Every structure is written in structure tokens, then in C-alpha cells.
Amino acid sequence: MESLIIPCNSKPPITIPFKQFSSEPFKPKISFNKTQESVSIKPDPRTTEAHLNYLCRNGRLREAITVLDSIAQRGAKVKVRPSTFTSLIQFCIDTNSIHLGRKLHKHIDLLRETDPFVETKLVSMYAKCGSLGDARKVFDGMRERNLYTWSAMIGACSREGRWWEVVDLFFFMMEDGIVPDNFLFPKILQACGNCGDVETGKLIHSIVIRCGMNCEARVRNSLLAVYAKCGRLSSALRFFENMEGKDRVSWNSIISGYCQEGEIGEARRLFDLMHEEGIEPGLVTWNILITSYNQLGNCDLAMEMMKEMESFGITPDVFTWTSMISGFAQNNRRNQALELFQEMFLAGVEPNGITLVSAISACASLKAPKKGKELHSVAVRLGFAEDLLVGNSLIDMYSKCGELEAARLVFDMILEKDVYTWNSMIGGYCQAGYCGKAHDLFMKMQESGVPPTVITWNVMITGYIQNGDEDQAMDLFQRMEKDGSIKPDTASWNSLIAGYLQNGQKNKALGIFRQMQSFSVRPNSVTILSVLPACANLMAAKKVKEIHGCVLRRNLESERSVANSLIDTYAKSGNIVYSKSIFDGMSTRDIITWNTLIAGSVLHGCSYAALDLFDLMRKEGLKPNRGTFVSIISACSLAGMIDEGKQIFSSMTDDYHILPGLEHYEAMINLFGRSGRLEEAFDFIEGMAIEPDFSVWAALLTACRIHGNIGLAVYACERLLELEPGNASIQRLVLQTHALCGISDDSLIVRKPGKRNETRESLGWSCIEVKNMVHTFVAGDKSKPNTEILYSWIKNIAGKIKRPDSHDGLCIEEEEKEEIGGIHSEKLAFAFALIGSPQAYQSIRIVKNLRMCEDCHRTAKFISETYGCEIFLSDSKCLHHFKNGHCCCGDYW
User: Would residue 130 be called left, alpha or beta, if left means φ above 0 and alpha means ψ between -120 and 50 degrees?
Assistant: First the structure.
């Protein structure tokens, strides 16, 4: 690069790769009728030139072209001056008349000589009239290109946002021996910044220095913008600090660069420094910072910034208001977004299309059709009735609000529908359960010439499977690639997984998850968050590890929502150690992370670990929420810390202004009940601010059962029966408590006719996984092979268990006694797991549908001690973890 100033030589046109555009030919062959009689009077060139100029000055371009047509048809030797032709082309530009411009272009042969300036003007005409392809054809056909020609072509590509083509043209321009000037360099640098090409920006920087243009303010600012936009902040700052004569544009560029990278603190420091150096920030500067604060979720700081801006005498414009409305809407503060929209109107600022879209989207999320209709009328009044973006947002809003007729009216009024228009309307029908109407529209979409995208197919699949039509959903899924030539993406598979889970088909959902991976489709966080809850049980411990492996392979472990879900699922599948390991490995934790591990610790009976986590959480500055308090009160209950639990409950309202819910009252009843304070528990229920529900009375019944208070037990059972009169288990408990009190069964029949027989219908069952096979046992079942061996083993174990001499509790159980209903299902599961290979099962995992009875609970403790194994058993009350003869529930369940 010794010599960068290259003379502008004329040379044959170089071939520049460019996308071909279709257009009519530029130089058609004009055939003349040879039999046509020659005109006897030859036109005077000066008269013709003057006449053309007269017509052009008076805006009579069509007549001027008619004159040119006449000259061409007669074959006269009259030639037009380049200046006259240029004036005619300029008139086409001014009137945006590409049709007349093309006619004019056909007569370029009437020029006295080929003129690069005229050809350059043609390039500009085509570009400014919206035909970049025709502009490029003229450009490529030129034998001589000067700086103005290149400027016209680069300017045309720049206006169309074709940044990479601008960069390519720069290199071809240099090959052609032309160096950009201080007006063209900024356009090329803008392209470098917008397409992230910092290397070309550096090259231009060196050329600018060698050419002595580094003192030009526009060039300097454009170079700074490249470094800032490309994220090279250290280079940008160094360049900025060495700049002489920084203006407002320079400051805006460096501040915008830091905002773009999320370094809002440094951006604010530079903003304040701008003040100190005597350059008052303009409206654009303020808007840059306000937009950045909103995009980072700091809406309150953005609002403060807007008020500060007004204090400096700068009135917020439509861009400022739109940024604020959009920021609040996107950060789940949609009511405030709508309030801001109203304030904007009162301030006399007219919204634009983006403002309306943001406000309408807020209404859609809030499901506020009344406010949405008001915004619709505003849009019509301001002339946005036919605006595609506004129309699409209105369809989406009406659909989400269940106003499908209104949505369809808007849909039908949009003449030029795009794929988003169709998707919004189809999605509205699917969401409302009208899959037939959605399918009709889906077919019309294909007939309209707008091909469905993968999103359209996914919307249809989701609609069908969420409305229970799994076969139709699967049919669409399989037809995607065959009929629509669209390969299912991750979202397509996610739709099936989520749909099957919603319909209770866990095994099918997991099967789709495995099939998805076999097709080399990468699961994302949505996939993982959908499938993990299906594994939150003791039977799915191995599946959780399988999914965890997928998370690690796909590098999803750093996503906090995924890590939180893994903590929860591992805890519920019986592996609290893995939960703690994931928690410890997280770089950032939110309140959900802490709550999940605290709840998991309580589930496994680790009360002190839960309380320690609570203390650590508060030390890190996180405020407990409703979920935290439920777990902590439960932890106090497990630890026997009654006074501490009461204090925690009081602090909810006193310190954190959280009104207790039914889940907190239930935890408090367990707190009192576990310690035997039944009267205090009953008084607490009587003093509740809200009506006690089923869970509260069930908690009291548990306390009565454990501590032998028959009077309160009868009362609690009767309250439960009032709430769920058809619950067979409750009816059985009522019968048992009445029997203990000597109350006649007939009285129950009188009050609840026909219900007594239903108490016989519910049977207990248990599931256990052995050698990757899930086996189900039912109480009293003797149909399975080797039943005699199972019963013999159980009888042998029962003979070794020492029963307590006295029993303070009440013998009332959800399940029929073994003397009536047969051996309970969990005992059959224990026997099946341990017979023949007692050492093979160090960990037994069982899921049971009913509450364990005391005898089965005692048996499980004995087996865990005798065989040295751990037993995880999840019943309708809690998770039991038996180890060394003890259970994590503390014998209270």
C-alpha cells in the first residue's frame, strides 16, 4: 500500500458478482420501416434542444419523450446534449416515475456522445425509484466509472440496507483504481458497522490516515461508530479519547456502543462527562440511554432519565415515549405501559405504528379487550387501519382475548396479508379450540400464495394436541416435511412433548423426547423444562439422569431455569444429594433456586439444612416469598421449633407484608399438630381469616390420628366429608371414627345416602421398578406368579417385627385392614424386590396411591435396618425415606 492515491483511469468494465435482477432490456433494437417516406424538412438541432428543455422545465415529460420517439422513428441525425438528457432524467427522479425513466433510457443512443455523467444519473434514477437491479445493470454496462458513479451505486445499496454489497463494491472500486472521498467513506464505514465487519473498518482506517482524511469530522465519527457497533469498545474508547473536536455525534457513538454491549454504567459515566466538557446531550443522546435502560429491564431508571431530560428543557419525542411503552410492556409491567400511552396522548405526542403495536401487545398479554378496542379506534383515527404490523397485533390481541369475530374482521380487512397475519388468526382459532376453522384457514393460506412456515405447522400441531386430538397432531407432524417441504424443528417436537404431557401421556412424551434426539434434533431449554416435570417421581430416577446427561451435552446447564428444574426433579425423584450438587455449582441463583432446594430439603426431612439455607438466602440479600414461608414453617415443624415457626408466620405480614394463604395455614396446623398442641391447632383454625379448605382439615385429622384425639378426629372427618362428599377414602375414615365413638352407621346412611357402599371401591396399589421394568401390585392380589413365595416371605418378616406394647394414636386408615382387604400392596413390593437377591437392592423405590398404614410403615423401617437398604416410598401424604430403621417423616404423616 505504498501508493494509495490511484489516478482515475478509463478502462474496460470489470465483472462484479451481483445478484441478477429481472427487468426489461435497456437498449432495444429499434426497427425502422424502410418504406417510410423521408421527411423533406430536416429538424434544426437547436430548435429540438430548446423545445425539449422547454417541455422539461414545464413538467411535460411525456411530451418530451414523444419528441424523442419521433426523432428516433424518423431516423433523423439530431442528437441531444447530455445536459438536456440529464435534466429529463432528473425530472423522472423528482416525480418518482420509473416508467417514464425506462422510456427515456431507450433513447440514450440519441446522445451526441457517451457520457459517464448521464449513465451515472441513470443509475441514480433507477436506484431512487426503487429498482436497484436496473441500476446495477446500467452500472455494470458502463465502460467508464468515475467517483460519482461509484458513489451513486454505493449510495443506492446503502439506502436499501444491503450492507455487505456496499463492502463488496468498496473493494471492486479500489480494484478499478478509484479511492472514496470524505463523503463516500462514511457510507462504506456505516455498512461495515451494520454488518459487523470490523476488519474492513480497520483497513479503511489505515487508508483514511494515508490519504489525510482523518481530520474530517464525518470520517472520524464514522470510524468511531464502526469500532463501537462491532463491540470493540477498548479500541473505540482509545480512538475517542484521541479525537480532536469531539461533537455530539462522537459522544452519541461511544455512548451507544457501551449501551449496545449492556455496559450501561460506563455509558452513563460518559454521558455525565459529556455534560462536564460543555457539550449538551441532544434528544438522540437521551433516547440512546433511555432505550438501553428499558432493554436491560431497568424501566424505573429509564423513567427517571426521561424526567431528568425534561428538566433540561428537552421534550420527549415519539421515539422516547415508544421506548418507554415498549420497555414496560416487555418487562411485565403492562398496566404501566398503557398508562404511559395515555400520558403520551395528553402530552400532545402522536404515536407511530410501533407505539401502537407495543400498547396493543400489552392489552393482549393482559387480556384486556376493552382497552384493546380503544387502541383499535385510535389506530383507525390516525390512519393505521391498513398498517400490516398494527393489523397483525390487533388480530393477536383479539384472539388472545377470545374475541375471534373481531379478530376475523381485522384479518379480512388486511388486503396484503403476510405469514404473521395468517399465523395469528390460525393461532387464535386453535387456542379457542376451533381446530376445524383453523384447518380451513390453513388450507386457504396455501391457496393464497403465502406458504406456511414451520411456525404455522407448529401452531396447528399444538392446537390439535392441546385439544385432545393426538392422532391429527401426529398426522400433521409427519406431513410437514412430505407436504410442506419443511423439516420439523425443535419447537415442533416440543409441541408434541408438551401436548402428550398435558394429556397425561408421560411415557409417550418421554418416547418423543428420545425419538427427537435419535433424529439429531437439538433439545432446547423449553424441551427440558417440559419433560423434566414428567420425571418428578421415584419411578423416574434413571430418566432424570438421562435428561441431565442431555442437558450437559447441549450446554444447557448454565441456564438458570433448567438448573432450577433439575434441582426440583432430583429432589422429588429421591436424590437430594444431586440437587445440592447442582445448587452448589450454580454461578447465579434467584429466589426460585433457593426455594426449590429448601423445599427439597424439607421433603427429605432435612429440616436443619432447610433452615440453614434460609439464613444464607437472607444474608445474600434475597427476600423470602410465599413459597419460602411454606417450606420454612414446615421445617420448623419437623425440627420441633414451635415458637420459631409461630414467629416466622407472624413475620410474613409484619415484616414482608405477605398475606397468608391456605398453604401457610396448613403448615401451621402441622406445626401445632406434630407437637401435640391440638387445642391450639383447633383455635388457630377457628381464627383463620379465610375459610379453611380440605388440606387444613386433613392436617388436623393427621394430628388427631397420631395423638389419639377422637373427638376432634370425628369433627375433622365430618368437615372433610362436607367438602368432598364423594371421596371414598374420607367416607371410610368417617365410618372408622364413628365406630370408635360408638356412633351408629345408620346415621351416616341417613345423612349421606348411598355412600357407604362406595367406601369399598378404592383399592391400594403400589408400583416398583426392578431391572428397568415397572411392576404394579394391588392389595390382596394373588394372581401374579410365585404369589405363595411372596406371602410366605411377608409372613416370616411380620413374625420378626416387634410391635409396641401400647398405642396412643387412633387406628383409622384410608386403606382396608389386611384382615379384610388382604396384604397391602407395598409389602408385596418389598417382598418382590428382596426375595432371592437381598443384596442387589440397596435402594428400593415405590410409589403408592394411598397413605401408608402404621403397620406397613413399621415393616419398612424394620426392612431398612435388617437388610441395610434404603427405601424411598411416596404415598398420598409425603415422601418416606427409610434408612437404618428410621423414616424422614419422623413417624408423622
Answer: left
CB contact burial 428-446 (16+ within 10 A = b; e otherwise): bbbbbebbebbbebbeebe
pLDDT of residue 543: 93
Rg over alpha carbons for the chain, rounded to the nearest Å, is: 40
**Distances from the Cα of 530 to the Cαs of 190, 478, 535, in angstroms?**
43, 21, 10
Share of the chain above pLDDT 70, in %: 90
| Cα torsion angle, 203, 208, 214, 219, sign | negative
Nearest to 430 by CA among 390, 479, 472, 368: 472
pLDDT at 750: 36
Residue 80 three-state SS: strand
**What's the rounded Cα separation, in Å, for the pair 852 and 824?**
9
Whole-number Å distance between alpha carbons of 669 and 660: 13
3-state secondary structure of 12: coil
| Across 585-604, average pLDDT | 96
Q: What is the pLDDT of residues 100-117, one digit of tens each?
A: 888 888 878 777 667 788
Q: How many CA atoms lie within 13 A of 11 on its CB side?
A: 10
For residues 185 and 219, what is the distance between their CA atoms, to the nearest angstrom? Answer: 7
pTM of the full structure: 0.74
Strands 879-883 and 765-770, bridge-based pairing:
unpaired
> Crossing angle for the helix pair 626-639 and 642-654, nearest 10 degrees?
160
Domain regions of the chain by residue span: 485-698, 766-799+818-887
Tell me the backbone φ, ψ of residue 886, rounded to 5 degrees: -125, 155
Q: In what order do the strands lie in the sheet with 879-883?
A: 773-778, 765-770, 843-848, 870-874, 879-883, 886-887
- Report the candidate in 530, 525, 533 with the shortest Cα–Cα distance to residue 499: 530
Strands 773-778 and 765-770: antiparallel
Is 1.25.40.10 the CATH number for 485-698? yes
Separation CA 537–CA 846 (nearest Å): 9
What's the grid cell of residue 329?
A: 410492556
pLDDT at 141: 85
Question: What is the C-alpha separation between 151 and 127, in angstroms, rounded?
Answer: 12
Report the b/e string of 188-217 with b at 16+ CB within 10 A.
bbbbbbbbebbebbbbbbebbeebebeebb
DSSP state of 844: E
Assess whether pLDDT exceeds 90 at residue 873: yes
Give CA–CA dist 541/879, Å, rounded. Answer: 14
Query: Which of 426, 463, 431 is CA-nearest to residue 448?
Result: 426
Q: Which residues pair with 870 in a beta bridge?
A: 843
CB of 605 closer than 8 Å to CB of 638: yes
Distances (CA, A) of 94 to 69, 126, 465, 520, 752: 22, 12, 57, 56, 90
Which DSSP string corresponds to 556-616? Answer: -TTSHHHHHHHHHHHHHTT-HHHHHHHHHH-S---HHHHHHHHHHHHHTT-HHHHHHHHHH
Residue owning grid cell 433457593: 594
Tell me which amino acid residue 288 is: I
CA-based torsion, 402, 404, 406, 412: positive or negative? positive
Q: For residue 468, report the phi and psi dihedrals to the nearest 5 degrees.
A: 90, 0
**Do 165 and 157 contact (CB within 8 A), yes or no?**
yes
Cα gap 883→577, rounded to integer Å: 15
Label the pairing between strands 843-848 and 870-874: parallel
- Residue type (1 letter), 33: N
CA atoms 53, 54, 56, 61: torsion sign: negative
The grid coordinates listed for 812 are 383409622
772: helix, strand or coil: coil
For residue 845, the surrounding DSSP H or E stretch is strand 843-848
- What is the 8-class DSSP label of residue 75? T
Facing residues of 576 across strands? none
Cα 87 to Cα 93, 114, 239, 247, 641: the distances in Å are: 10, 16, 44, 38, 94
Q: Spell out the residues 6+ positions from residue 385 whose beta carbon is closer than 8 angstroms to its own.
A: 379, 391, 413
